[in-house]
Amino acid sequence: xxxxxxxxxxxxxxxxxxxxxxxxxxxxxxxxxxxxxxxxxxxxxxxxxxxxxxxxxxxxxxxxxxxxxxxxxxxxxxxxxxxxxxxxxxxxxxxxxxxxxxxxxxxxxxxxxxxxxxxxxxxxxxxxxxxxxxxxxxxxxxxxxxxxxxxx
Length: 152
Fold this sequence. Notes:
Blueprint: H1 8-34, H2 41-44, E1 47-48, E2 54-55, H3 79-82, E3 90-97, E4 102-107, E5 113-117, E6 130-138, E7 141-149
Parallel strand pairs: 5-7
Antiparallel strand pairs: 1-2, 3-4, 3-6, 4-5, 6-7
């Protein structure tokens, strides 16, 4: 007669596989029986209190404030809306090379670096000067136009 094709290792692996399957089934049954409602929707709910903080407790309806739909603003305001059109932005000259004819200024509010060409100057500037400017977008970034010394 031929010998059985099942070796000791194969039997052991099959036994371990069966044990793991039974343990998994047992854990699944325990979860079903112990907490049917555990982890339901109530545990997932989060509320916002009157200060804008998240909490697990529903807010007090007496402290509720009605807000008009028109007062809700989605997104951020455009910079043009925030700034007065008559007031030019101010910047500090951080680098300027007269021989090459260009330099950079840093906006005082945003600290953004803006390119300046000598053709866009109304008067001579040097490093450290405070200037007023108008900016335009170019493919390479912002470029200052009509740059003049600030009258501080």
